[in-house]
């Protein structure tokens, strides 16, 4: 369609080239950065329109814009262009996960055993229910059912953070929602690393992969996070508190962590989450405790969720896949609400029910986690690993994306 629209322009351009020799060849396609910038503008406008007219969260508009212009619908953003802009999504999600990790007060949590028990009692039924549905109803093999459960068990800390900020929500329920999503994300990352080993044990000829890869993921992420947090604190201690220079150091070290994790094939989302938690725990002098990313969350969200929307494989939608996806989400929702209703933890039952509703958003990292696991074994073919995001008949898209960023956002 675009070729038909631009064919007269191409002919006129080529005619000018005969006299104006300095003109470059007519571009066959728009520059990926220009396309991505246009996509961000459209995403922002759609998000603002949905918020103003329908009261929907802006995040939905960002995802819809990415879906519309991505490979699944109009195809203006190709798979190759999506792979090129993937590092931007890595950095966006990484910085958001850094803020989520910094919001965890590990010392306070160590004295609040009720909240930890409540979180554990919510995580375990969620994983179990999703695993049983994927294995018993959908018919996945146990390894892939476990992978689907690990990918989808967590709530969306980035989405919850943005919605809380957008609605200016405050209070005990909001605090519990934030803490539950952060802790469930941390648990999901650990389970995800273990499941990677399970998948290796199922499909790899060398058992060493099943043992070393999860350790590489967890230990690698922890080492990078610790080193970058230490570097950030050492440099920031030399600068005035709450200064722009400290903000710069925080962002620069976070981006350094993103780049290092990408080079070493370590999950960016896990690395930056751990970096944030380590910063929160180690910053006893309050060097960076009051240094935040000023109004930066929404810019990061637009980048992240536009890429997420463009990555969803809607072109392979079938009614069976849709029903399976709805079934999985219902099972997941019931497990979370029921678990929290019976969890206790020092919060009244009606408020626990509200917390269970508040932690329903599915994590954006789930899309990337599903792609990364599938990218390890693209030859397996048809799989329902990405069941809540629509199942693909083959994993060519994840494989091509993972070739650029093996452990992206």
Walkthrough of the structure:
Its main location: membrane. This is Cation:proton antiporter. It is found in: Membrane. The protein has 409 residues and is mainly alpha-helical. Helices cover 72% and strands 0% of the residues. It has two domains: 31-77; 86-295 and 315-404, Na+/H+ antiporter like fold (Up-down Bundle). The protein is built from 18 helices and no strands. The chain starts with a helix and ends in a 5-residue tail after the last helix. The relative contact order is 0.16.
Keywords:
single chain; 409 residues; mainly alpha; Na+/H+ antiporter like fold; 2 domains; disordered C terminus; Cation:proton antiporter; Na+/solute_symporter_sf; membrane; transmembrane
Question: In what range is the share of β-strand residues?
Answer: under 5%
Number of helices: 18
Q: Give the overall form.
A: globular
Whole-number count of domains? 2
How many strands? 0
Averaged pLDDT: 75
Low-confidence stretches: 381-409
Helix content bin: over 70%
Q: By helix and strand content, what is the structural category?
A: mainly alpha
Main sheet makeup: none
GO biological process, one term: proton transmembrane transport
Transmembrane segments: 33-52, 59-79, 144-164, 176-203, 215-240, 247-276, 296-314, 326-347, 353-374
Membrane topology: Multi-pass membrane protein
Protein name: Cation:proton antiporter
How are the elements arranged and paired?
Layout: H1 2-17, H2 32-54, H3 58-69, H4 79-84, H5 86-102, H6 106-111, H7 113-138, H8 142-152, H9 157-167, H10 172-203, H11 207-236, H12 244-263, H13 268-282, H14 297-311, H15 319-341, H16 349-358, H17 365-376, H18 396-404
Helix pairs in contact: 2-3, 3-14, 5-12, 5-13, 5-14, 7-8, 7-10, 7-15, 8-10, 8-17, 9-10, 10-11, 10-16, 11-12, 11-13, 12-13, 15-16, 17-18
């Amino acid at each position: 369609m675009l070729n038909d629209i631009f064919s007269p322009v191409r002919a006129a351009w080529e005619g000018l080239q005969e006299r104006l020799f300095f003109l470059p060849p007519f571009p066959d396609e728009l520059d990926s950065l220009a396309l991505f910038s246009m996509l961000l503008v459209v995403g922002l406008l759609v998000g603002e329109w949905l918020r103003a007219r329908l009261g929907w969260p802006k995040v939905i508009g960002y995802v819809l814009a990415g879906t519309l212009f991505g490979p699944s619908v109009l195809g203006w953003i190709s798979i190759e262009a999506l792979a090129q802009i993937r590092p931007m999504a890595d950095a966006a999600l990484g910085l958001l996960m850094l803020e989520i990790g910094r919001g965890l007060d590990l010392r306070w949590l160590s004295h609040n055993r009720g909240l930890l028990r409540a979180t554990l009692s919510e995580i375990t039924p969620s994983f179990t229910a999703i695993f049983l549905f994927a294995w018993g109803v959908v018919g996945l093999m146990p390894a892939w059912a476990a992978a689907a459960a690990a990918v989808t068990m967590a709530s969306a800390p980035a989405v919850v953070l943005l919605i809380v900020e957008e609605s200016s929500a405050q209070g005990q329920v909001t605090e519990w929602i934030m803490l539950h999503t952060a802790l469930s994300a941390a648990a999901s990352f650990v389970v995800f690393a273990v499941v990677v080993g399970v998948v290796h044990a199922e499909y790899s000829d060398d058992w060493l992969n099943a043992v070393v890869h999860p350790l590489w993921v967890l230990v690698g992420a922890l080492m990078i996070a610790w080193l970058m947090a230490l570097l950030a604190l050492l440099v920031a201690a030399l600068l005035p508190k709450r200064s722009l220079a400290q903000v710069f150091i925080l962002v620069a070290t976070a981006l350094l962590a993103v780049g290092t994790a990408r080079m070493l094939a370590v999950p960016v989302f896990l690395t930056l989450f751990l970096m944030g938690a380590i910063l929160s725990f180690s910053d006893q002098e309050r060097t960076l405790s009051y240094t935040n990313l000023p109004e930066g969350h929404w810019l990061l969200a637009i980048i992240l969720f536009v890429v997420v929307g463009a990555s969803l494989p809607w072109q392979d939608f079938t009614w069976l896949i849709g029903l399976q996806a709805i079934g999985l989400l219902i099972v997941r929702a019931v497990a979370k609400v029921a678990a929290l209703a019976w969890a206790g933890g020092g919060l009244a039952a009606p408020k626990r029910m509200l917390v269970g509703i508040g932690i329903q958003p599915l994590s954006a990292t789930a899309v990337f986690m599903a792609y990364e696991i599938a990218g390890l074994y693209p030859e397996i073919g048809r799989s329902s690993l990405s069941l809540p995001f629509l199942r693909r008949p083959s994993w060519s898209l994840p494989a091509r994306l993972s070739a650029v960023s093996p452990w992206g956002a």
